[in-house]
Amino acid sequence: MRLFTSEAMREADAEAVRRGYPSLLLMEWAGMKAARVYRELFGKRPAVVLAGKGNNGGDGLVLARHLLLEGVEVRVHAAEGQTGDALLALQALLAHGVEVRPLEEASFRKGEVVVDALFGTGLKGPLSGVYADLVEQVNRIGLPVLALDLPSGLPYAPHVRATATVAFAAFKTLHFLHREACGRLFLAEIGLPKDLLAQVASQLEEGLPLLATPEALAPLLPPRPLTAHKGSVGRVGILGGYRGEGLRYAGAPVLAALGAYRMGAGLVHLVAPEGPLEPLEAVFHPVPSPTLPPLKVEALAVGMGGGPWGKAWALAALEARRPVVLDADALHLEVALAYREAGLPAVLTPHAGEAARLLGTGPEEVAQDPLGAARALAERTGLVVVLKGNPTVVAEGGRLSLNPTGHPALATGGTGDVLSGAIAALLAAGLPPFEAARLGVFLHGLAGDLLGEEKGVGLLAREVAEALPRARRLLEGGQAPWPFSRV
Ligand SMILES: NC(=O)C1=CN([C@@H]2O[C@H](COP(=O)(O)OP(=O)(O)OC[C@H]3O[C@@H](n4cnc5c(N)ncnc54)[C@H](O)[C@@H]3O)[C@@H](O)[C@H]2O)[C@@H](O)CC1
Ligand SMILES: [K+]
Predict the structure, then answer these.
(1) Averaged pLDDT, 420-443
(2) Which residue has a Cα nearest atom 13 of ligand 1?
(3) What is the interface pTM, i.e. ipTM, of the complex?
(4) Is the Cβ–Cβ distance between 384 and 433 less than 8 Å?
């Protein structure tokens, strides 16, 4: 599924009009579908609708009319100066005898639900004045909020923090870059001609990121035939750890080994200076320094717990001439370029701080524009980039994919190591790096979602590894939860 930018959405709108489709119908459907979501979530609770003067406000005015017809008590506060379709929506509402009061006089009553129809894709720059005040008030009072198309104010601050958001026609990248502001997500079909979005998307393909959906990822799962044996389903080498002065993350390579096994690797070779503390199914190759022993593997994960040895591990792993995941201490521009030079498929898995170091910017810049940062790093290195965060972004050249799974409970030491091993297992099973990265990130996030819901925060990384087979089974069985509902 493609995620639209505001510009691409405007282009879709314009194309519909060029084909002679009346734009008022789109607005009518948008408002009607939003009213349906309102009723589903809030029943007959009274509504207070805040409408801007643009088409987002027009959608809100249509919703008000539909709620009214269904017997919901509605109060409406609207900006002045509607034109075009929004003006027609206002006239239709007034014809029902509804009093429309100025936004400046907006007030909120206990038991009401706020409908945020102030701004959608037409917002240019941060809110100020009465709009900023109103949005801050809405966030403060704690009433449930249904946002139409987008929580008003996004991507800037302040913005509405909604209980639920109904996106019209297509999701925008902002919905998945700002999940917290959107609450529950609904996607409303609003009657655009069937092929139109696909046509606009194909014209702009370079620029439109993908959303990783169960539908797109399930077919990528490596098959497990009855004749499978441990040498036929992907063998993984894990290279990492450090023995010297300073901190040692001896558990990191072990967690990567667990991640690889739990993602279905047939055999895992663990190459590290120190052995695992507990018995482990991996074959342990003790080495005194970063070197590559002879290994029969189809892919590697390198750098976990490598400390000052990180670069040496990555350069040693180059000799295997296998697809690799470069993580943590193996993340250096020089290393990435060496893999590019060697023509080896590689997946880099930086978090914002590591990506900033590789790009020579600050972590805030990366966090502010994760899509841009992931794309820049993928273009600079020629490799696949997994920029970890909320959301995690996967990039290869100009191709971008946003991941919808993942739970705040995953924010704990070692979960990144599990992810590296998991992606390596998928590479070893024969998936191309972009696909291995998307699938690994999705299942790792889903494992976190399952555990986060069951146990809350306080997870251990090894538990995330343990939950990977359940996540995989859900995806295989067509039961992985979709991150949104359709209306
Ligand atoms: N296919 C589509 O794209 C459809 C879009 N529709 C709705 O139309 C919306 C987009 O409508 P518009 O393009 O009219 O845009 P909006 O309604 O989002 O906002 C536009 C208005 O906000 C003003 N504005 C922009 N930035 C501002 C700021 N920082 N402070 C104060 N005022 C500001 C503009 O001058 C303009 O009057 C969508 O989000 C959606 O809700 C629907 O009506 C149905 C069809
Ligand atoms: K809105």
Answers:
(1) 98
(2) 122
(3) 0.98
(4) yes
- Binding-site positions read 55-59, 116, 120-126, 131, 149, 152, 252, 303, 351, 388-392, 416-417
Residues with Cβ within 5 Å of ion ligand 2? 116, 147-148, 152
Taking domain 214-482, whether its CATH number is 3.60.140.10 is answered by: no
At 177-190, the pLDDT tens digits run 999 999 999 999 99
CB 291 within 8 A of CB 316: yes
For 100-113, write each residue's pLDDT tens digit: 999 999 999 999 99
Residue positions in the annotated binding site for (6S)-NADPHX? 55-59, 120-126, 131, 149, 252, 303, 351, 417
Exposed e or buried b for every residue in 100-133, given b needs 16+ CB within 10 A?
Answer: beebeebebeeebbbbbbbbbbbbeeebeeebbe
Evaluate if residue 417 carries a pLDDT over 80.
yes
- Please state the CATH superfamily assignment of the domain spanning residues 6-205 in this structure: YjeF N-terminal domain (3.40.50.10260)
Helix (H) or strand (E) holding 55, with range, is: helix 55-69
Q: Say how many C-beta atoms besides its own lie within 10 A of residue 365's C-beta.
A: 14
Q: Ligand 1, residues 21, 85, 168: which to mutate, most atoms within 8 A of Cβ? A: 168
What ranges do the domains of the chain cover? 6-205, 214-482
CA distance 240 to 253: 6
Mean pLDDT, the chain, whole residue set: 95
pLDDT by residue (tens digit) across 250-308? 899 999 999 999 999 999 999 999 887 777 899 999 999 999 999 999 999 999 999 99
Cis peptide before 404 (omega within 30 of 0): no
Angle 284-354-347 from CA coordinates, rounded to 5°: 55
By C-alpha distance, which of 9, 82, 25 is closest to 51?
A: 82
pLDDT of residue 165 exceeding 80: yes
Distance CA 302, CA 346 (A): 10
Question: What residues have CB less than 8 Å from 361, skipping those under 6 apart?
Answer: 373
Is the predicted pLDDT of residue 206 greater than 70, yes or no? no
Reported as type and span, the H/E element at residue 84 is helix 84-95
Is the model's pLDDT at 204 over the cut of 90?
no
8 Å CB contact between 101 and 77: yes
Binding-site residue ranges for AMP: 388-392, 416
Alpha carbon dihedral 408, 427, 482, 327, in 10-degree steps, equals 20
Confidence at 205, pLDDT banded by 50, 70, 90: low
